[in-house]
């Protein structure tokens, strides 16, 4: 048994060293999987109405192009994914937009004070995929704009949470105009690793660090898998107005593989150190 484990580990090590995780098109997935990308699986979910997710923000470039989501955690701070902001540390390069369900228009547009990427963000395996964004001025809370509180409890399996975003509804698709949402269900990290292993996705198996949490969600008895897509990154996994995790990555969305998020409980001390929250 021990010898077998060692053998498997050696195989994994060999595989990983042969396939750099961020080769080629890192903007799409942590690693391209061409044959799976061709599978345009529907991700499911429903269209949101204004005020349903008042904590949800859109990140737009200075030119007004939507590129990622984020979550309001105080009257001046937003949390997002480092993937979204790692090449945008200069706060003049993008904006935070609150109070809208439209990805590219409307809402209240805020210029930025600071963009702080997690110092241990690693693009190779998308670890520590969180960033903090401070706007200039403060948000005025209303029915359409509000904050969530930050979770500090470790979340286990079978927890239901809302995930909202403007990501595509199929792998390789375009972001949508109107905010969409679904309810995701957590699984254990062990279950998550096993699923990737069973699918032969060894790089993903190795990237399920303890600071990640996975969801794997089916719509009732249907075989369809609900999940987030690329431009949903930076959004939140929220239960009862508490943010537990930030949308990180998956291998082609809506397919039979888990979605990965970064745990707020894990990053709580870093968040406090930057924001004082
Ligand atoms: C689940 O599937 C049903 C039937 O297709 C659909 O009406 C419903 O919106 C789906 N639920 C979610 C959360 O996507
Ligand atoms: C950030 O920029 C570097 C250098 O141009 C590039 O290799 C990398 O893919 C970019 N990362 C993201 C997440 O866009």
Automatic annotation (TrEMBL):
PANTHER family: AT26814P-RELATED (PTHR24276:SF91), POLYSERASE-RELATED (PTHR24276). InterPro entries: Peptidase_S1, Peptidase_S1_PA, Peptidase_S1_PA_chymotrypsin, Peptidase_S1A, Trypsin_dom. Keywords: Disulfide bond, Hydrolase, Protease, Serine protease, Signal. It comes from Clunio marinus. GO terms for biological process: proteolysis. The lineage of its organism: Eukaryota, Metazoa, Ecdysozoa, Arthropoda, Hexapoda. Pfam families: Trypsin. Residues 42-276 form the Peptidase S1 domain. Coiled coil: none annotated. The gene is similar to Chymotrypsin-2. PROSITE patterns: TRYPSIN_DOM (PS50240). It comes from the Eukaryota. The keyword Repressor does not apply. Belongs to the peptidase S1 family. CLIP subfamily. This is CLUMA_CG017448, isoform A. Residues 1-18 form the signal peptide. The keyword Disulfide bond applies. GO terms for molecular function: serine-type endopeptidase activity.
């Amino acid at each position: 048994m021990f010898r077998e484990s060692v053998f498997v580990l050696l195989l994994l090590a060999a595989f990983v060293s042969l396939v750099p995780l961020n080769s080629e098109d890192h903007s799409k997935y942590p690693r391209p999987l061409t044959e799976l990308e061709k599978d345009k699986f529907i991700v499911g979910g429903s269209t949101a109405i204004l005020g349903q997710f008042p904590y949800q923000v859109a990140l737009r470039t200075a030119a007004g192009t939507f590129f990622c989501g984020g979550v309001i955690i105080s009257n001046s701070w937003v949390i997002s994914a480092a993937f979204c902001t790692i090449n945008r540390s200069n706060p003049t390069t993008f904006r935070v937009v609150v109070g809208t369900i439209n990805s590219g228009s409307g809402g209240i547009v805020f210029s930025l004070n600071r963009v702080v990427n997690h110092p241990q963000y690693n693009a190779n395996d998308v670890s520590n995929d969180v960033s903090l964004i401070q706007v200039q001025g403060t948000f005025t809370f209303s029915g359409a704009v509000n904050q969530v509180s930050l979770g500090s409890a470790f979340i286990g399996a079978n927890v239901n949470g809302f995930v909202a975003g403007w990501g595509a509804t199929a792998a390789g698709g375009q972001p949508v105009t109107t905010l969409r949402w679904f309810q995701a269900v957590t699984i254990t990290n062990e279950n998550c690793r096993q699923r990737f292993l069973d699918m032969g996705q060894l790089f993903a198996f190795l990237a399920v660090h303890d600071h990640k949490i996975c969801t794997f969600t089916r719509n009732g008895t249907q075989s369809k898998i609900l999940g987030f897509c690329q431009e949903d990154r930076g959004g939140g996994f929220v239960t009862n107005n508490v943010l537990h995790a930030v949308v990180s990555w998956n291998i082609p969305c809506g397919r039979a593989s888990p979605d990965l998020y970064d745990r707020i409980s894990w990053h709580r001390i870093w968040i406090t150190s930057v924001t004082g929250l």
